[in-house]
Each structure stands twice: as C-alpha cells, then as structure tokens.
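Annotated sample (chain length 707).
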Amino acid sequence: MSFARSLPLQATGPANAGAAAIGAAEQANWLPPQGAELLAFLPTRLRFPLIGPALGAIAIRSAEMAWNRADGVVGWGEKPLARLGKGLAAMRGIPYWSLEDGFLRSVGLGKAGAPPVSMVADDLGIYFNAARPSRLEELLQWGADKPDLARARTLRAMIVEHRLTKYNHFPDRPVALPATHGRRILLIDQVVGDHSVRGAGAGEHAFRHMANEACAVPGATVLVKSHPDSVAGYARGYLSHLAGRPNIRFIDENVSPHALLDVVDEVWTVSSQFGFDALLRSIPVTTFGVPFYAGWGLTRDWADGPVANAALNRRTHRVSLDAFVAATLLQYALYVDPVTKRQTTAEKAIDRLVAWRHHALERRGNYLCVGFSRHKRPTIRRLLQGPWSSVSFCGEVPTKKQLAQADCLVRWGQNADAPHRGNALSAPLPVLYIEDGFIRSAGLGANLTPASSLCIDREALYYDATRESDLERLLRTASFDPLLLARAARLRQRIIQCGISKYNLDATPSPDYRTLAAGRRIVTVAGQVPDDASLRLGLTGGISNLPLLQMVRTRRPDAFVVYKEHPDLLAGKRQGLCDAAALGKLADLVVGNVALDTLLDASDEVHVATSQLGFEALIRQRPVWCYGLPFYAGWGLTHDAVPPLRPRRTLPLDALMAGVLILYPRYLSGNTGLPCEVEDVIDEIHATRHNKTGLLRRSLRRIGWAR
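Output written by the structure step:
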C-alpha cells in the first residue's frame, strides 16, 4: 500500500496546462457551431453532463421542453430514446448528432461513476454501426495531413507507453501462460446481445466461425478472454460453450488488455475494442464482424453477410496505422477535462488518465479511518475511495470486527500520535497519517472549509522533526529531473502572480509598509497557535510567540518589526492571542489577515518558529530564519537555529518546491471533488477569489448543470 509518487508521471504538469490546439473540433464543419443550443433528453444529460463543454461550450437544453429554441438535437448511441431524438430533429427540421463514449474514456466504468475524458459526436451515424456510413468512415476516406500524422504517431506512442485503453481500471499484472511452441491466438469473447456485435453485422454465428477457424490452426494455442460480465455471472458469453475443451484455455481474470497483449501473437475478435488496442501495438488482428477498425487494410477480415459486405465495399481506402489513429483519436473523438469542465486535447486527456490511474493504484485496500470528525469525512472518502479501495469510519475505539476487515488505519493530524485504545492496541495494521496540505483552500479549516490538498504519510506527519516522514525521505533521495524543475519554477511564478497562500483569506487593506518603516529594514515575525503540533514536534524547545518576538527584537534592534497574527487565533477558533500591550512593546506593527503577498514582498527578512509563512517567504525568495525545524528547513535555503537530527542535502529552491507542492501532497478539485494537480487548485482558488459566484450556482456547477 504505497503512496510514493512516480516522478515521470508528474513531470509534465496538469491536464489543463498549456494552450495546445484542441484539435479537429475547432475546424470541423460537421460538428455543432460554437454557441449552438442543442436539445437532449434527461437520461442523455445525466449520462454525460459534459456534453456542452466537450462540444465547445455549447448549451444543452431540455428536449422535454418542446418550446425550447434549438439548433440541433443530440442522443446517446442507438438506444430507444435516441430514435425519439432523431424523430424530434426530423420534425423540427434541425440536425441530429449521435453521442457515444470515446475510445479513451476513464479510469473505471461509466456505470460505476467514473468521469469520462472523451466522447464522440456523429452527424451521419455512429462508429460501431456498420449498417450505414459514419462520420469516422468519411474522415478515413479523406485521409490526414502530415501534422496530424506526426501527432498521431506521438499519441500512439503515449498510449502504448502508458498502457492505456478505454476504461483503465483493470490490474496491469503479468499473465502466466505455459510455454508453447506454436502461435498464441487470443479470442475475445463478448456478452450475448452486445450492441457492438449487432452493429458489426454479426451474431452467434460469427463467434462460432472464429472459434472453429482458430482451433483449425496447426500447433496454435487458443486462448479465450472472457468478458468480465460473464465471469461475474451477469451475462452469458458467446464463447462459453468452448469451456472444457482441452485445446482451449479460458482467461477469466480481470487484467489490463496490455497484460494479455504482452503474451499473445495475434488477436481475433468480432467487434471488441480489444482489437483496436492490439493494432496500436502493431499486433496482427483478425475480425469476424465489421468493427470500426476493419476494412481499412489494417486487419484480416473474415466477416460475411449483407451488413459486412456493404460496409467493406464502402471502406475502399487503405490507410496507414498513423492515419487511422489521426482520424479516430484526433479528428473524430472529442476531449473534455472533467476537472476544469473545458475542452482539452487528446494529449492532455491522456495526462489526466495517467494521473488518475496513478492515484487509483495508490489507493488499494480497505481503509478504516479512526476518530475523524464528520465534516472531514466526505473529503477523506473522496481522497481514498477508488476502484480497488473501500473507506469506512469509526470513533476513537474501533471494534474487533472493524479491525479484522481493515487493511490500514488512517489517523488525522495531531491526533495521529495519540495511542490507539482498546482493541486497536493489538491490531498489527499499518497506519496512514493525514494532514492539510500547503495550499489548502480559500478559507480556514477551522471554519469547516473543505481542503483541496491533503498530505498522506506512512511514517510521520511532515511537521514532526523527530521522525523521518515520507516528505523528508523524498526530499533527501528523489531525483528531480529538468522537466519537473521547470514545472516547479512555473508553479512558483504562478503562486506569486496569483498571490496564493495556504488559506487564501479575504484580506484586509494592507498598510504601506515601506512608508511606515521610514527606511528601516522590515522584519516579519510569524505568530502561531501556541498548542500547535508543529511547535511541539518541531524541536522549538517550547518557544511561544512572545519569546520568539523578543528574540527577534534583540537580534534586530533597529529593524521595523511586523508581527503577523495567526488567522485561527484572529477567528477565535483557537486560544492563544498575545496581550496587545506586550506586543506593542516588541513589534512596530501588528497585522492580521492582510494580503500575504504584499507583506512578504515588503519584507527584508522573515522569522518563524515552524510557521508555513517561512515556506511562503522562500517561494518569494525572501531570507528566512527558523527557530525550530519546519519541513522546509535544513536544506540549505534557510538560516537554521536547530540542526537536523538526520543528514540532509542542499537543495535548490525549485527542487524543494517540486517535492513539497507537486510530489508529496494529493489534490482534490474544490468544484468537482475529483483528483487533480496543484495547478488546478491554484486556478480554482484564484477564480474563487476574483470571480465570486453564488452558492446555488456553485452547487449546480458541481453536478454539471451549470457552466
């Protein structure tokens, strides 16, 4: 149950970064024009709430409201409701587009709620129905230009490198097969009644034909990949009748298609996307129906019948694999980022899928969260819940049954070092420690504002200097490649540009520090909550705010000293405000919730015990004095009164940034609750602070009913 991040996965930045071209959707005259208003029935709107953004900020209106103005109608696939939508479009004399999931969809199944990153919209038919032409067929007949071909080649390499497919939630573990001397032929089973089988002009006869031909290959080892629904008993597979034959081996385990493609020589299928996955890896594919990738010279096609013959007669153009990828994944498919709810590129969608799968792989097992307050539980559930994990909560004393069902205990913040009581004492379970991240939210946690960043640590909390945390080990051992350092540098500039801090509170007007200082050196001192765990565990020697301020005044007798109160104390959520008279004797100016960027920009020095204000000062390249040992001290970037207990190396600032803000925390979108990257959170916080929206609109946006 590892939570260590892989550096290459995170080096390129978030899925919404950059301004790369969106792709064919910008130029395609067969798609709805920008600003169009389309009608869709309720099930369609629920199935894919991001239709509008995927098509380019198009408004989706209720088809149930017949009086709605409309420039067209959209419907899902070839379901009965789609036929009703086609009839509505014909009646009103407006265009109709068929919608379907894209070829690179999600990490997890749609029926399980996994958010999609792609879809297709077809004005002629739909790609899986070979009975009539589709827009994909038209695109393949037209061919692709050189830039698209080059981009397709790179895209295919990305898909193969990251071992991506449509759903990306099956384990990618090796498949053990006995040694063989002949060809390994993999047959792909599908469930009886599959729409793609019917759309490919096939049926049970096609699967029998496929099985008979495979068994007739001399010396071949025939493997059958069972459909997950048939393995689970939800449906019957077309090839189930082959079970028990001595020369056929069924593979019933749910594994990634790429794990199977690693160990086979050929793939035979009727209409499964598995054949497309094989083509991307240049593995020979034989088809017995007419899937979208058949008939273009890339496959050996054995389909027959009226639908097959008509389709193959239409598909006369022979294309290269790169041209096929260009048409399918660049020109035909549309991509949308579920985090930002904006159109994106295929490459950025892949970045998002890779990151989500990495998050999901981290979250495996049954988590028992001990002693979490109720307002934290939704955020923790979103953080830990995944395709291969479950999350449950209990009080401070778990029951024996709860412990027996758990793979891991989860504890929060300063409660994490509290001893487990009762039955938990005898539980030999690993413990994960969770605390707020360094760019937390636009509001205080003490005011129950949900966190957009959280730190998960297997060893200790990041502010515990007495033990080596995962963060300390990462900073001590990680290799920070140039791409990651460049991303960290851009991130640092973005933080400065947007004035981002941990809590991002509405600031009171800032005084003119330079005028008040009258030429003196400005020294800022950070106040902290007196009973804060970081003071207790940060080797401060029990220093509190007034003694810290006294030490700074003694060291800088001629400086203009600014004392910054902690926001939790000002909000009355914690106890420990200093006496105003005592502060007045030591500080020239006491400030509260002022703009931190303005304060730090004016500061010549920043002095802290363990406050994160010191890290935020480092971001802005201000000299920092530490009187304890916070997470950012001891790496050669601060003036340290306390030496580290363990050896540390000297780090450049951007390496510290990369470790602390990119690799170590986990981020959740404040708008959607989805896993995201630090840049996404910064954009959301910046937008929240500068474009205030009402609670109702934010709630509607969260469920996809408003843009």
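Annotation: Residues 357-475 form one domain.
Annotation: The chain is about 35% helix and 15% strand.
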